[in-house]
Amino acid sequence: MKESRFWFLFLIAGLVLFLLLGYHIVFIHLLGNYEANISFQSVASRSVSPAYAVFYLLFLVFALYHGFYGLRTILLEIEALARHHRTVTAILVVLGVGLFVYGTWALFAAMKIGAVG
Amino acid sequence: MAKPVQYNNRLGMKGWWGGRYGLERWAYFLHRLTGLVIVLYLILHIFVTSARVFGPEAWEATMGAVGGPVFRFLEYLLIAAITYHGFNGLRLIFIEWFGWSLGRPRRPIYPYVTSLHHQRPLLIGMMILAFLFLVFSAWGFLTP
Amino acid sequence: MTGGTPKPLVDVDMDRVVQTTTFRVFRYNGTGDPPTYKDYEVPTKRGMTVLDGLLWIKENLDGSLSYRASCRMGVCGSCAMMINGKPRLACQTQILDLQTSVVVVEPLKNYPVVKDLVPALDQLFEKHEAVKPYVMRPGEEDELENPSGEFEQSPEELDEFIQFTYCIKCGICLAACPTVASDPLFLGPQALAQAYRYVADTRDTAYAERCDLVDTAHGVWRCHYAGACTEACPKGVDPAFAIQLLKKKVFQHRVLGKKRKVARVAPKPTGVSRRPNVPEPPARTVKSD
Q: Is the pLDDT of residue C137 over 50?
């Protein structure tokens, strides 16, 4: 795939993040009672909601893609790494996919424990 | 006679610093810096929030470790970084994807009017929006 | 009022020395010894440029000082150098405009230094060459070799790229660019602006090839609109603008599959004859092989 497609996805992900992250920051960190928002009770209640699961999954995908493409951009512009762009890309893909798998696992595992809390 | 040797004058990563250049170059530097901070935080955030899987005790222990006024202040700085990155990023999407707000190509007649002059109101507007959002978030932070 | 010469309202005496400027000049002997800075005191008159100062030093203080200069009027692009931390043309920068008594003069950043203020500009020309800066019409090479007429291009179509044809290849934009500073493989503002100049030129039909050429890991996407190249450009070419327009074109071509208008060869006028007093053009002097 040509660089332009990756870059295009990077911009789309950035736009989506602007909305998702805006929502996340305003409703978790700013509005309401922060202490209550991050209590286990509140977190567990969000974890079992399918709507939140979809939200977090989208968030995870777009944030990881945007973040890791951005990181790749910075790394590729470093003189020592510029000539090894395949290696840099491969390492970042492995890391990114690893984090995605871990995050998704946590998401689904948390859906089950929600009832416990 | 000595063999000619060229002196390496490449700036390297030092060249990312804004230096004596204009606003856009500083916007670029800050965008890069905040982006790096946010991606490192994202990785951390994935691990921290996964603690909920291991039950209420693990969750409370993790939240306790990253609680307190110092972390709350760092969290505010992070929101500031995200806000800046978001609003400046929106400007960059307008410019890099759609070519908006840059004017049209024209014959260069002195004094030169460039695309930088054309998009500067957009840059300043975005910074005002980011500032307003940060004032709003400070208010959200001070009233728990 | 009696006697004395009336003082003119504006001091227009161009020969009067108005300040003594210290030129702190980067010196490198070209043999691998570490570079040093050497100070020269230059009596400064109104209108004197940094290049005038360097010429004065070479004539009066130190004949071993090396720098490049030719036209001394901002056309040839030879005298680009770092003046007080920013890349500028020495011949277009007046000493008094800098509003300081110390002028730091260094060779252009991001280029290897040959000696003193002389940079090796190889990468500039190699990158310029890499984007094929000439009109290409794949499949119509014969028309370019033996033209049967001119290409039809409207003034509006010309306006789309004429700004970027004013580039004088001084290399200042590469010294200003933060990506060039750390990434030696990045094509750089000069070459990418020229790539856009031919992508936007309707006489050129190698649109797809040109898009492929810059659509790489170290191509057009490594520009982040820091704008330093545009700020520094002494000719108002605005390379940063050209690169954003190039991104748009590559995006349209690659993602949307959009075609670009192509200029056709203007048909020969019919029903007219040559006036008898207009001579035929001379025979070609360049042989095509």
A: yes
Query: Per the structure, how many domains does chain A have?
Result: 1
Q: Rounded to an integer, what distance in angstroms lies between the CA atom of residue B56 and that of residue A43?
A: 10
* CB nearest to A79's CB, from B12, B52, B140: B12
| Domain ranges, residue A92 | 3-113
> How many domains does chain B contain in total?
1
Alpha-carbon distance of C17 to C47, in angstroms, equals 11
Task: Determine contact: C256 vs chain A, CB below 8 A.
Answer: no
Contact call for B105 and C30, based on CB within 8 A? no
Which residues 74-103 on chain A approach chain C with CB closer than 8 angstroms? 76-79, 82-83, 85
What's the confidence (pLDDT) of residue B1? 67
| B116 with C240: Cβ contact below 8 A | yes
Q: Inter-chain contact B20–C86, Cβ cutoff 8 Å? A: yes
Any domain includes B1: no
CA distance B48 to B58: 10
B73: three-class secondary structure by DSSP? helix
The packing angle between helices C207-214 and C188-199, to 10°, is 160
The domains of chain C, with CATH numbers, are: 17-119 (3.10.20.30), 122-254 (1.10.1060.10)
DSSP A6: H
pTM for this model (two decimals)? 0.92
The CATH number for A20's domain is: 1.20.1300
Q: How confident is the model over A25-70, as pLDDT tens digits?
A: 888 777 767 777 777 888 888 888 888 889 989 999 999 999 999 9
Residues of B near C (Cβ–Cβ under 8 Å) read 2-16, 19-22, 24-25, 27-29, 31-32, 92, 95-99, 102-110, 112, 114-116
What domain range is B31 assigned to?
A: 24-142
Band (A110; pLDDT cuts 50, 70, 90): confident
Pairwise CB contact (< 8 Å): C159 & B114: no
- In sign, the C-alpha dihedral spanning B31, B50, A13, B86 is negative
| Ramachandran assignment for C45, one of left (phi > 0), alpha (psi -120 to 50 degrees), beta (any other) | beta
pLDDT tens for residues B55-91? 888 888 888 888 778 888 898 899 999 999 999 999 9
Render pLDDT for C179-226 as a digit per residue (tens, 0 to 9): 999 999 999 999 999 999 999 999 999 999 999 999 999 999 999 999
State the CATH number of the domain containing residue B72.
Answer: 1.20.1300.10
Q: What is the pLDDT of residues A3-37, one digit of tens each?
A: 999 999 999 999 999 999 998 888 877 776 777 77
Question: CB distance B93–A11 less than 8 Å?
Answer: yes
Whether residue A82 and residue C183 make contact (CB cut-off 8 A), yes or no, is yes
